[in-house]
Design brief:
Layout (H helix, E strand, L loop, with lengths): L3 H26 L4 H4 L6 H24 L3 H27 L8 E5 L5 E4 L1 H22 L2 E3 L3 H25 L4 H6 L7 H19 L4 E3 L3
Antiparallel strand pairs: 1-2, 3-4
Helix pairs in contact: 1-4, 3-4, 4-5, 5-8, 6-8
Length: 221
Amino acid sequence: MSKLPAVAAFAIAMAYVEGAVVAYLREVYGIHDLVRDLPHTTGRLAGIETGREAATMVMLLAVGWIAGRRLQDRLGFFVFAFGLWDIAYYGWLALFTGFPSSPLSWDVLFLLPVPWWGPVLAPSLIALMMCIGGAAAVRQVDRGVEWRMNRVNAGIAAAGIAVVLYTFTAASLRAVPDGLDAVAKARPSAFPWPVFVAGFMVMSWAGLRVTWPARSRLLRT
């Protein structure tokens, strides 16, 4: 029996907790517009928040490891849970706070190692791809099919991921030479959609190269 429904329930419930925490933080700090109202300091609470984000990744990795039997489906469960958690998080947050009001609303996506900024639509597209790819990885293991990741595919995937990460972190990275306070104060002015789309397409192409049936083989039992 597939464990995908159970992992999906975990991801959605975890997204509720995440959305509730962010709703509390917005209320405490009086945040209505993230770009304008996000605190510019790097104090104790900022450290706790980055720790919470790291703990979130550990939890998602742990559930993937527990649910899977092989490396492929363990990674598949992790990627599926990550994507669904991200999508469900925005759903819960919209219910709790009314944010995002639009797919193009700016959000702080992550704080590690520097703040990631982007319109909600951008990470949601990646999350949707992760849900599809992660579920496919799990289902293929159930059918006895192994995916191959050679150096070429890994290089293509890494290039696409690097481009996408740059679009999210460009504003913060430009402020790094001026210190942590400057990074905390850095704000985006515009999102480079053409660059993001290029990176996203390269990532998707890498995924297709790995999952293409001709490049897969039956798992040894």
